[in-house]
Write a structure and sequence with these properties.
The chain contains 4 helices and 11 strands, in the order βαββαβββαβββββα. It has about 190 residues and is α+β, with helices and mostly antiparallel strands. It has a single domain, classed as tt1808, chain A, CATH 3.90.1570. The strands form 3 sheets. Strands 4-5-6-7-8-9 form a 6-stranded mixed β-sheet, sandwiched between helices. It is globular and about 50 Å long. The two termini are about 25 Å apart. The relative contact order is 0.15. The N terminus is likely disordered.
Amino acid sequence: MQPEVHQNDAPWMTTEAFLRWEGSGDTRYELVRGRVVAMAPPTPVHGKLVARFVAAILRRLRPPCDLVVEAGIRLEERSGSFYQADLAVSCTGFGQSDRYLPDPLLIVEILSPSTQTHDRGNKVADYRTLPSVREIVLVSSTAVHVELWRRTDEGWRVMDLIGRDTRLGLESVDAEVTLAELYAGIGMEGDGSE
């Protein structure tokens, strides 16, 4: 989803004020460094990738763990940022009225040409500051390519997974997804599929 700056001249907003703010209509918003950002509607490929990822891991989750699409991610240490992750998993209970997902273990973002700089630059850096996050997955919408960030005792390890015959092992939720499963029915230029 393409971030577009909304209300450029608006004053800096705190996370608390952002969570009270209603926005307009069905538009999704994020708070990035104190500025409200409107998110463009997702493309069909984006939606398919989210659906495939949900289908691949939801059945493997065991209570109390659960998956949330368009999960609100609150950054406690950064009062001017609040993100909408494409999907996230938490094993901490949450209520119907909660505006954000507590203690996410796994965060997944679907990249597009217009969002990859923001997702890799701002979001990944900020997600890495959350103590509960064990893995961050960046899924390309233009190639059969997944980037896996995993927290280790030594720091963060990054793995590039390329090609439909590749497996994505998710330690945080004890699940495995093949890229063939993830990209099923989605033809990518140059990979010989549909």
